[in-house]
Amino acid sequence: KKIGEIRDLSVNYHSLEGETLALKNINFDIYENEIIGIVGPSGCGKSTLLSLISGLIKPTTGHVLINNRLVDKPLKNVGYMFQNDQLFHWRNILRNVTIGLEIQEKLNEDTKAQAKEMLESYGLGDFIESFPSQLSGGMRQRVALIRTLILNPDILLLDEPFSALDYQTRLTIADEIGVILKKEQKTALMVTHDIAEAISMCDRIIILTHRPGTIKEIVDVSLSCE
Ligand code: ADP
Ligand code: ADP
User: What positions does the domain ABC transporter occupy (predicted)?
Assistant: First the structure.
């Protein structure tokens, strides 16, 4: 089932140095429960594409639709996970996971229990009362993912989610996070520099080239993962 539509998307940045055509004529659809990887050289527009889908910036031409809703500002149904985990060091792990619920005024006994359950099911049950500094980098990324998942977004955007981790941790956590996304049946778009990571985690990979950023190819890798 199709849940997202990216049509004729172009972005022209205006700045003191002049104009930069960052993305030109991008078209693709997003289907339910798929993980799409976005790879390409630095400066090809990967961050710009995620910013558009998250509604943080507006396209110069074209549109983004998620579940038939025009994304022209940040929406609650789009979840975002950053490069580094961005946990709050003064809040314990449970309170880090529930912060989005608090902001959306959805924190109650049920959602709190659900947060605890998710932490337990993903191996963090012993760390509910711990603080971020007491966890490894990989565990903190897992907490950050759970924090985003608990808000039940229609689509999850991951911007180089593992780039702050060392190589060995990166392999393990990439695996774990791929499993979590599949288990929770989430639709996700992930920007990465690492083509091997994209192949192992994603169903489809969009290869961007610069400049301006255009789609070179969309590769279906889901069959190779069965
Ligand atoms: P990537 O994430 O693939 O490295 P970006 O989306 O960050 O690429 O950038 C794409 C192009 O747009 C680059 O040439 C970059 O310098 C330019 N760019 C990105 N953001 C801005 C901005 N806010 N103002 C002007 N140019 C920008
Ligand atoms: P990434 O690590 O994803 O490649 P960058 O380091 O290219 O990100 O960019 C970091 C931030 O700076 C982004 O928010 C991007 O939009 C902005 N940016 C990138 N290039 C420019 C530019 N030429 N002028 C203004 N802002 C820019």
Answer: 6-226
